[in-house]
Amino acid sequence: MTFPHLDGRAGKLADALDLPADLAEWLAVTALHSGCFLRSQLQVYFGFAEENRRSPTRIIHKLINKQLITETSLKSLGLLARVTNKAIYRFIGADNIRHRRSASLPLTFRRLLALDYVLDHPHLPWLPTEEEKVACFDQLGIDRAKLPHRVWDNATGHTVRLFANKHPIAVDPRSKQACFVYADSEEKSPQGVLSWRSEHAALWSDLCRLGFRLSIVHASYNLRLEESVSRLFTRWTHQPHSTVSRAEAERELARVQQALRSDDRSELEVYGGFNGALRASAALEERLEEHDNLATYSADYSTWISERILQAVRNPNPSGSHIANA
After folding, report:
1. What is 262-292 written as a DSSP string?
2. Which of 36, 67, 262, 304 sits most deeply, having the most CB atoms within 10 A of its CB?
């Protein structure tokens, strides 16, 4: 299994830490996309047969002995390996990624889902870091104000992070295809994917304007949640599309309201007179209220279930995930 998007980082890691190429690649991809992994995921990467329980264990022990990872037991999941060595992140140019730090259980599941999806789609042009995502959309000429962002207050002021949720994104400018994956650790409702959609709507709209084909994927390990999201995606697929952006609608509303306030007859005539302008103003206000329920882009929607994480949750084994140690 190879990951073209690593772009030489695995080789640097292999040289720096004196590791076999495949093991260096595994550490690079897990550090970039999750910072943690299950033995079942390692088993898939190395192509070990399901009944081969010794080889994953040997690799885990080797990495632990070299102080590159740690392994802990989670009651609801089984054994979880974490890539904790600072040097790994430094050598792959990902010092700012916080995957080294321990995380809450929902965030851990989100990271595992992200890694699992990447493992099943290794040849997509993934953008694993914030810097790579921003650089990609900068090159496409997309305004950074349209990128999903979050603001944190701190002692020195405000910190703005773009793509702070770190969900997987793959973009191929040559074929004009983009894949956005929502790794959903929520077990009860699709509320998270609704918020995620709102954060990305402006970016998706600009990509469609540039001729990109969008693939939007909901990744989870919960079958009931998948059913709920599938119904939501069906509604989105058949949802009417707005042909006017929110900014354009706001500008038009300001224009018609200014015409009404100033009683500018030439401007009012554009809307069919004073009464027509009143109706246009009311319609624009209603459109703005409903705008968040209208898509300004078209996309292919799909759901994806991680069988590996599903099995680990169903059969948690503190001595070896859902694969017993030998």
Report:
1. HT-HHHHHHTTSHHHHHHHHHHHHHHHHHGG
2. 36
Q: What is the mean predicted confidence (pLDDT) over 124-139?
A: 96
Specify the 3-state DSSP secondary structure of 67.
Answer: coil
Q: What are phi and psi of 195, to 5 degrees?
A: -65, -40
- What does each C-alpha distance from 123 to 7, 29, 120, 127, 291 come to in angstroms? 12, 12, 9, 12, 36
Tens digits of residue pLDDT in 271-304: 778 888 888 888 777 666 655 555 578 899 999 9
Tell me the CA distances in angstroms from 176 to 125, 170, 208, 228, one per residue in order: 12, 11, 9, 30
The predicted-structure confidence for 194-213, as pLDDT tens digits, reads as follows 889 989 989 999 999 999 99
Contacts 24+ apart (CB under 8 A), 314-318: 315/78, 316/74, 316/75, 316/76, 316/77, 316/78, 317/78, 317/79, 318/73, 318/74, 318/75, 318/78, 318/79
In this prediction the pTM is: 0.80
Residue entry with tokens 């002692």: 155
Structure tokens at 238: 């058949």
